Amino acid sequence: MVTLSNPVGTPTFECIGVRVDYSGTPSTTHTSITSSLGLPAAESSVIMEYREEGTVRWITAFPMYCDTVNKEFRGSLFWLKPKTTYDIMLTGSNIVTFAVTTRDDNPPSNGRSFYVSKSGNDSNDGSVSTPWATLTKASASVQAGDTVYFRAGNYAGGIINVSGVMNNYITFRNYESEKVTFNSQVYITGSYVRFRGIDASASIPNYIYYFENNNDCFLEDCHVSNLGTSSYSSCVGIYNGSQRITVQRCQLTVTGNPNGDIEDKNGIYYWKAGGNHVFRDLTINGMPWDGIGGGPEDDANTLNDSDIYRVKVTNAWDDGIQPEGGVINTRCWSNTVRSSMLGYTDACQNLQGPLYIFRSDICADKNNRGDGNNGCLGSGNGGEGRVYYFHNSFWGMEGSIGFSAKNYGVFNHMCWNNIVDTDRYAIEWGHEPDGTNCTFRKNILRHRNTNYDLIKWGNSATNYILDNLEDVDPKFTNPSQGDLSLQSGSPAINAGLILPTFNDADSPYNTDIGAIEYKGEKMVTFTGTVSAQSTPRQVTIQVNKPSGGIDTVSTTTDSNRNFSVQYNTSLVGSYSAQATASEDTQYLSSTSPIVNFTVSKQPSTITLNVV
Length: 611
Fold this sequence. Notes:
611 residues; Immunoglobulin-like; ten-stranded parallel barrel; six-stranded parallel β-sheet; mainly beta; globular
């Protein structure tokens, strides 16, 4: 048994990362969940539960990772609401409870309003009728809570070293829907600052929006383009201890890199940047080196407690998304990568974890390098931190590989419910220790080039589990054109392992293997028993749909007067059904009670006993 102490919860807008110290010896006995998933028995030692403050029901979260080196359990909570308080309960041999409030994703600016215009003058007072002319003047004149509106036009960037406060940000934004563009770098060292709706386009050997040694800043609703031709000519840079930087609802275009091979010219580049960042709802295109990436990869503080989600990366020369370093409670989900060498990589070490990568679709439909090295996930270099990789979909063109290893040492990867449909190896972890303490369960693994093995595994790997559907066509809709949705009849439909809070009743998803759920019909099974009288009997079920329509389903009973019949519908919502049984020779009939039920994302069984 373990005794828990010093719990910490670190929130973003929709997640909370949880860490807790332990003493004692972790369990050696599995629960049904740790056993079915192939997790170490030690991870049954602590149960994490949570609920929104003021509600009654506790929700059991996914098992926490047990770090036996640092004597710590770590895990994350998902699908939360911004600016909301949650109670968290951790149960080992003792119980610890605490509360955490998620961050506000739309913090206020409740102070004065000022204006900047191309027709303005910095000797003015900044009012709507007598505006300033430059960002530099505005930055030097505002205080916490103020909003600066820019009128249409192109403006020079500048230095922002003024700060707001937690509940009263300084905001720089465009006026109404007018188009505003900065044509040089905006260097932000102040904290609690928002930039909204101001585009930026420049050709510079550095970052256009550059955050350094600050915290709690937003960049949102803008298009940033860097035409520079040198390394680090990225759209956004986050440096040297900056924390809680949010980049959302932006398009980041990396141009000036026609061959794609200018290293570290990214959409977002981070360096010694601390953590607790949120990068979401982004389009990163042009020809970046990485869509999102940076380092140093051996820094245990890099990207901890950060979220990267709903990001689409196209044409990355190297990696679509590169979460490496400490990556403690780092979460990547619902991302899309196209025409890039690798979808994700933790190939330069995941030091601690857990790193969550899930619900992402990766299509290697083009190889910019022309070297046949494109793939799904790159791992290696001896990082021993936990990686969860589940409910992802990958399709690769000729020469592609699914899970690949850079150098040696792929450890502690837990892979469930993924689809890997590739040309060469579905898994190429061929160095001596690769695959140690790894689990692959309920994945669809397929390779189309029989000159290669489906799986290339390290010869000295130990403590691994391989239990998958092998060389089965997942029936993607149109993979070569980037459509990785499932066709009717796909073996992936409803075939995955249950992952608590990720595909059960407490999540927005079902158990279809892969990233994209089958959008067709939901399955309901009607079962029941017809009482007495002779057999066989005809059973007709009338189904009243949410739309007001009526469907009928017919079957016959077996020799024990039992019946079972499947009903498929594309509508979710509230239904009712009633079964009527008729005796074929005597035309006698009887009915079941009317049963109300709900059709949702999960298959369901409804019992209709006819008396």
